[in-house]
């Protein structure tokens, strides 16, 4: 009952270990660990490197377990830890955390420095409440997916509420699939204005969903569910196609569309992008794809390759939510974005804090040195607008000027002479 690739005991061995262990009253703890980004490694480097990575992970896990706990490979990129005895839960949690921490630095395989992550879920029981190994693994699996939803690179203990959440997510996923099939999603557009003239120079595409069951559902709720289920790629293509169709008649202004990390990792995405541009006739030079830093950090090599293909069409790429993550000067030089979008939090903090203001100013100076345009997001007050304008931002986006508008209203706003009033909110 050994896995041939990793030489670790397999799933059947875990069940046998739990069933045959003499300490029936002792605590049993199980952790399930899933690698984050393993499919990308296979797609980018090939299965031979993927197999080597699995072997390396098995060695790391076996060494961490030592003689205290038992390591298993369940299949694919999924591993497990099982221990029966005093303090089993505490020990298994410590091993899982150590395994995850190991992936905060790259693993070297055949001269390649590979960055991946890991997420874990843990469940335990003891005494009269001791559950079967099958149920322990099911609970650990539920908790592991909670770790992935909450940002990955972490471990989560199972609790009953996770089962209820999982069922809710399943129902939400089914609703989203029906909404996508029936064109029940809606697109709205928030204008960006020239910081000096107040003229509309671009619009950002925003996705809205009014569920028949739950009413309006925010993207912060349904997008993570769609990313986990894999539906986000289909939704993203629907958004991109619909936005290009809507914006075709809005002469000269840029159209920005957000893409997720899942889409950027999809080797088919650049192909689909090209097909949409050809199908809709939308000028590539007017399209701008917005990505966040999380799209890039797990596999910067694959991200760079995807961005190169995207730019090959003439499409621009902007870095969204700058100021909330890990981006550095080297990071920005590596990817050469056409635009930097300052996150609202950076703008708000700069209003009342000298250190935050200095950080915002240095970010703008850095972007300008790298020949990037700079947009300030979430501007809601005259004071914020004056601050980012004097700091050198090229564009301003926020409720001070425009809320998100349906496509039918954008053309009217483009022709509205009041666009030229840079210090007056124009919310229609």
Key descriptive features of the protein:
TIM Barrel; five-stranded mixed β-sheet; Alpha-Beta Plaits; Rev_trsase/Diguanyl_cyclase; disordered C terminus; 428 residues; 2 domains; alpha/beta
Describe this protein's structure.
The protein is α/β, with parallel strands linked by helices. It folds into 2 domains: about 10-160, Alpha-Beta Plaits (2-Layer Sandwich), CATH 3.30.70.270; about 170-420, EAL domain (TIM Barrel). It has helices at about 10-20, 40-45, 45-65, 90-100, 135-150, 160-180, 220-230, 230-245, 260-265, 270-280, 295, 300-310, 330-335, 345-350, 355-370, 380-390, 405-415, and strands at about 30-35, 70-75, 80-85, 105-110, 110-115, 115-125, 155, 185-195, 200-210, 215, 255-260, 285-290, 315-320, 340, 375, 395, 405. A hairpin with a 5-residue loop joins strand 8 (about 185-195) and strand 9 (about 200-210). Helix 6 crosses helix 7 and helix 14 (about 345-350) packs across helix 16 (about 380-390). The longest helix has 22 residues, at about 160-180. The relative contact order is 0.09.
Brief sketch in words of this structure:
With 428 residues, this protein is α/β, with parallel strands linked by helices.
List the helices and strands and how they pair.
Elements: H1 11-20, E1 28-36, H2 38-45, H3 47-65, E2 70-75, E3 78-84, H4 88-102, E4 107-109, E5 112-114, E6 117-125, H5 133-149, E7 155-157, H6 160-181, E8 185-194, E9 200-211, E10 215-217, H7 219-229, H8 232-247, E11 254-258, H9 261-265, H10 269-280, E12 287-291, H11 294-297, H12 300-312, E13 316-322, H13 329-335, E14 339-342, H14 344-352, H15 354-369, E15 373-376, H16 382-391, E16 395-396, E17 405-406, H17 407-414
Parallel strand pairs: 6-7, 9-11, 11-12, 12-13, 13-14, 14-15, 15-16
Antiparallel strand pairs: 1-3, 1-6, 2-3, 4-5, 8-9, 8-16, 8-17, 9-10
Domain GGDEF: 26-160
Organism: Aurantiacibacter sediminis
Protein name: Bifunctional diguanylate cyclase/phosphodiesterase
């Amino acid at each position: 009952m050994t896995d041939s690739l990793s030489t670790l005991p397999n799933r059947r061995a875990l069940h046998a270990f739990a069933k045959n262990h003499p300490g029936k009253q002792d605590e049993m703890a199980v952790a399930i660990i899933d690698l984050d980004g393993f499919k990308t490694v296979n797609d980018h480097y090939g299965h031979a490197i993927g197999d080597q990575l699995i072997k390396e992970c098995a060695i790391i896990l076996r060494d961490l377990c030592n003689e205290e706990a038992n390591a298993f490979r369940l299949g694919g990129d999924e591993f497990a830890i099982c221990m029966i005895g005093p303090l089993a839960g505490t020990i298994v949690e410590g091993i899982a955390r150590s395994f995850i921490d190991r992936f905060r630095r790259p693993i070297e395989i055949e001269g390649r420095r590979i960055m991946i992550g890991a997420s874990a879920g843990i469940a335990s029981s003891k005494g009269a409440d001791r559950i079967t190994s099958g149920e322990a693994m099911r609970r650990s699996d539920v908790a592991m997916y909670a770790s992935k939803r909450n940002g990955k690179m972490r471990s989560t203990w199972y609790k009953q509420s996770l089962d209820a959440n999982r069922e809710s997510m399943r129902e939400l996923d089914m609703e989203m699939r029906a909404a996508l099939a029936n064109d029940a999603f809606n697109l709205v557009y928030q204008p960006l204005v020239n910081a000096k003239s107040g003229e509309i120079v671009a619009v950002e595409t925003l996705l809205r969903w009014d569920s028949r069951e739950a009413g309006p559902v925010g993207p912060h709720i349904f997008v993570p569910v769609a990313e986990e289920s894999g539906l986000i790629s289909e939704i993203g293509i629907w958004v991109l196609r619909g936005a290009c169709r809507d914006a075709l008649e809005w002469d000269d202004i840029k159209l920005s569309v957000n893409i997720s990390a899942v889409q950027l990792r999809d080797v088919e995405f650049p192909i689909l992008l090209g097909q949409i541009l050809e199908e809709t006739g939308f000028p590539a030079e007017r399209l701008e794809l917005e990505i966040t830093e999380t799209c890039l950090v797990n596999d910067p090599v694959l991200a760079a390759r995807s961005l190169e293909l995207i730019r090959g069409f003439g499409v621009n790429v902007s870095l969204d939510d700058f100021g909330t993550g890990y981006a550095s000067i080297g990071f920005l030089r590596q990817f050469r974005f056409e635009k930097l979008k300052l996150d609202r939090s950076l703008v708000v903090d700069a209003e009342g804090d000298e250190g935050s203001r200095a950080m915002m100013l240095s970010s703008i100076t850095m972007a300008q040195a790298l020949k990037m345009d700079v947009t300030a997001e979430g501007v809601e007050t005259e004071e914020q607008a004056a601050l980012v304008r004097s700091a050198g931002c090229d564009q301003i986006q926020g409720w001070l000027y425009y809320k998100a508008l349906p496509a039918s209203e954008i053309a009217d706003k483009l022709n509205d002479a009041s666009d030229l009033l840079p210090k007056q909110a124009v919310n229609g």
